[in-house]
Design goal:
Blueprint (H helix, E strand, L loop, with lengths): L2 H22 L12 E4 L5 E3 L3 E2 L6 E2 L7 E5 H6 L5 H5 L5 E5 L6 E5 L2 E2 L15 E5 L2 E2 L12 E8 L3 H4 L6 E7 L7 E9 L3 E11 L4 E12 L4 E2 L9 E12 L5 E14 L5 E2 L5 H7 L16 E2 L5 E17 L3 E19 L8 E20 L5 E22 L12 E23 L4 E22 L2 E26 L2 E12 L2 E2 L10 E2 L2 E14 L4 E13 L2 E9 L5 E9 L2 E16 L2 E16 L3 E3 L2 E3 L12 E14 L2 E12 L2 E2 L2 H5 L8 E2 L2 E11 L3 E8 L7 E6 L6 E5 L3 E9 L2
Parallel strand pairs: 9-12, 16-20
Antiparallel strand pairs: 1-2, 3-4, 5-11, 6-7, 7-8, 9-10, 11-12, 13-14, 13-47, 14-15, 15-17, 17-18, 18-21, 19-46, 21-22, 22-23, 23-24, 24-25, 25-26, 26-27, 27-28, 28-31, 29-30, 31-32, 32-35, 33-34, 35-36, 36-39, 37-38, 39-40, 40-43, 41-42, 43-44, 44-47, 45-46
Length: 753
């Protein structure tokens, strides 16, 4: 089936879904994936389970929170076999992601708000566009794809979340809550075997130590031969090894005080940056080599899983963190303290030219650490008012020592191991903020909310760039950026099961010091801001057997930050790179999104999500791409598909005793998109810069009891051949495509009751 036909059918499904929403009289956008029966209505029939979220740093029902949020409970995570942010985003409307070579190299997009600062531009501390939190602690410095194991809940918050999630949460936030130790013994072991010799083993142990102290430990190990093969004699491909562990302690000496301490570590190693060659070169590479040959492997779509590079390559990431979260409750007030420290290492080393000749190799390590301390004081179930005030201090540091060197085939006659470029840098951001929020329960139906966050960030950078072994550029500079971000929300209960809300909020992403300073580039770049205007509705109907949430939004984005890089050859034939960050004028994003959960019978569960997004640059006349200034004004933004949709259905049936069986089908769709600014600039060339629309279908079936479950699954059932994004991976192999693949396997779980 052609992409055009699939797109037409997908749009028909979307229009039908919207018509259903209209007929029911509710438009909404913050739904959680529905849970299996959570109770009974007056007629004794099963109802959807209540979904609890912590979007406002306290436990509340999803339906009571006037925020666009999709929530995935522990049961939903297991049911969907969610193992990373890509699995979460494929089931959430108006979100997308691109992958640049491994599990942890992802760039996220929520409502078209995405990251335009590449690794080359961000120096050593990533300037994140989203808050990524695990148990109230920010891990965005270390990862864009946290490990998913023994998780209580995952929440995707759409739109600026400045009050509670702070600077850089301009597009939204990913809020993850882990399962905490309990006073009952529990253990669980899961084994998963799937295609490409992929094996996974997970273990969980919950152990009461005393009446007031309990421990919970998690370990995960996964290895795979990968779906991409290197035909070169050096062998290897995207084979991978992933290790993850977490140890949690909970101390509860009395009913008022709770202390949670968590230590976690993650280690990922992949044999290459994933991707197959498109046969299309970047402008710079084309100027060097003119054209490339298939190199014995061909190009997409004839080649979907082969590469040919003759020097080993590795890409990986490691991080570990420790947190302490203490909470003390009085009758009507709670005091919360969240302390955390993390260290992370990411690297790319080995072959960089991507071809069978040994032309260039590189070593690119990023070492980072971060610490933060947050205090919050807030009310507990106030009658007329609910309020929270808080303060946070954070420090993020990083360093890099990157080098590109000449391989054994000596391109341009350069000697072996000659250092073409080298970059060393140290970066530090020190942030401090105070924040507060007050909710006035004006009547039984009307709530008025005011929130504000005041932030000060001090950014320091020290960098030396070498070309041909000689220092070319030395920078040591700092700057300070201040911001006040408000939030205003009014919500009104139409009934006990339906609420409408309106929100105006601001998001702030700190500015920074330019990593390259010359006559064309200012010493610093400004913060970027987003003003978000949103209308939403949350509703339940059919006596608790249906849930429909939706929203419409308009976002005005100013001083958008974007990386640029210029490569040239000087008079001596040496490659010279200049990169930096610029403020790229303005953009406007608007759209609608809706999520529906339905329990038509006690055993059949249905979910549907739909998102429409219009995201384009208003004024972007100074895009610096491939060494040239390009006008991208009024062009669509990258990583922002116009239509997104997902649907799933699960049916359970009794098998006797405490055993039951289930069958489940999942489907998701992503519209045409461009992966990055370069793709937008080269849009007229079509392939590979336009990523065509695609859809995917997964099937799962199994049997389960209180203690056992056996699940068989197949993902990408119809073995659809598509690619999810394009990026510049290497020189002579051309732009790389992230290809689809089909996998299938069996998952077995044993647990104590």
């Amino acid at each position: 089936m052609s992409n055009r036909v699939r797109a037409g059918r997908a749009r028909l499904a979307l229009i039908s879904g919207c018509a259903v929403c209209s007929t029911l009289g509710v438009l909404s956008t913050d739904d959680a994936c529905a849970q299996q029966a959570g109770g009974q209505n007056a007629e004794g029939r099963a109802t959807l389970e209540e979904v609890v979220v912590t979007s406002r740093r306290r436990e509340e029902s999803l339906q009571d929170v006037p925020i666009a949020v999709s929530a995935f409970s522990a049961e939903s995570i297991e049911r969907n076999r969610i193992e990373g942010v890509d699995d979460v985003f494929s089931r959430t409307p108006n979100v997308a992601y691109t992958t640049e070579g491994s599990r942890d190299r992802k760039r996220l997009s929520i409502r078209g708000v995405t990251e335009f600062i590449t690794e080359a531009g961000e120096a050593t501390v990533p300037a994140n566009t989203f808050g990524i939190y695990i148990d109230d602690f920010s891990v965005a410095t270390a990862t864009s794809n946290p490990g998913v194991m023994d998780i209580e809940r995952i929440e995707v918050l759409r739109g600026p979340q400045g009050t509670y999630f702070g600077r850089n949460a301009v597009g939204g936030a990913l809020n993850i809550t882990t399962k905490k130790p309990t006073n009952e013994f529990f253990s669980e072991v899961t084994a998963d075997v799937s295609r490409y010799d992929t094996y996974e083993l997970d273990g969980t142990l919950n152990l009461p130590i005393t009446d007031t102290l309990a421990m919970r430990a998690n370990v995960k190990y996964q290895e795979s031969d990968g779906y991409i093969k290197n035909i070169n004699p050096i062998g290897g491909g995207n084979d991978s090894e992933y290790k993850y562990g977490r140890l949690s302690l909970r101390y509860t000496p009395n009913e008022q005080f709770t202390l949670d301490m968590i230590a976690s570590a993650s280690d990922e190693l992949v044999g290459m940056r994933e991707g197959v060659p498109s046969g299309v070169l970047s402008a710079f590479t084309e100027s060097l080599y003119g054209e490339v040959t298939p190199d014995g492997i061909g190009y997409w779509p004839q080649n979907t899983n082969r590469v040919n590079f003759n020097r080993p390559q590795e890409v990986g990431s490691k991080y570990e963190y420790i947190t302490a979260r203490a909470e003390y409750r009085w009758d009507n007030v709670r005091l919360t303290s969240v302390s955390g420290y993390l260290e992370s290492k990411t690297f790319l080393r080995g072959d960089v030219d991507g071809g069978s000749e040994d032309l260039f190799y590189e070593h690119k390590p990023y070492d980072r650490d971060a610490l933060s301390q947050e205090f919050r004081l807030g009310s507990i179930e106030g009658k007329s008012w609910d309020w929270t005030v808080g303060a946070i201090y954070s420090r993020d540091r990083g360093n890099i020592d990157q080098a590109t060197q000449v391989g054994n085939d000596q391109p341009f006659g350069l000697p072996v191991d000659f250092e073409v470029t080298r970059n060393t840098a140290d970066n530090e951001t020190i942030g401090a903020a105070i924040f507060g929020e007050a909710v006035w329960h004006a009547t039984d139906r009307l709530d008025l909310l005011v929130g504000v966050r005041a932030t000060r960030d001090k950014v320091k950078i020290s960098e030396v760039t070498f070309t041909a072994g000689e220092s070319r550029l030395t920078i040591s500079d700092e700057d300070t950026f201040d911001d006040i971000s408000p939030r205003f929300t009014a919500s009104y209960a139409l009934s006990d099961a339906s609420k409408v809300y309106a929100t105006i909020s601001k998001g702030f992403k700190s500015g920074g010091v330019q990593i390259a300073q010359n006559d064309l580039i200012s010493d610093s770049y400004d913060p970027e801001t987003i003003w978000n205007y949103e209308l939403g509705i949350k509703s339940e109907f059919l006596d608790g057997r249906a849930r429909l949430n939706a929203a419409a939004f308009l976002m005005e984005w100013s001083d958008l930050q974007a990386s640029f890089a210029v490569a040239d050859i000087d008079d001596e034939g040496t490659i010279v790179f200049t990169s930096g960050i610029q403020n790229a004028a303005e953009a406007t994003n608007y759209g609608v999104e809706a999520e529906l959960s339905l329990l038509p019978t006690d055993r059949l569960l249905l979910n549907l999500s739909v998102g429409y997004l219009h995201a384009e640059f208003d004024n972007f006349t100074n895009a610096f791409i491939d060494g040239a200034i390009v006008d991208l004004s009024h062009q669509v933004m990258p990583n922002a598909p116009e239509w997104t949709a997902s649907a799933d259905a699960q049916y359970t049936f009794p098998l006797g005793g405490d055993w039951e069986g289930f069958a489940r089908a999942e489907w998701y769709y992503r519209d045409d998109t461009y992966s990055d600014l370069t793709s937008v600039a080269r849009r007229d060339e079509g392939f590979p810069f336009l990523v065509p629309s695609y859809d995917n279908t997964n099937l799962r079936a199994g049997v389960q009891s209180d203690r056992f479950s056996i699940v068989a699954y197949i993902e990408n059932v119809f073995d659809q051949k598509y690619f999810t994004n394009v990026y510049e991976k290497a020189f002579v192999s051309g732009m790389a495509l992230q290809p689809s693949y089909q996998t299938y396997g069996v998952r077995f779980t044993w647990r104590t009751k």
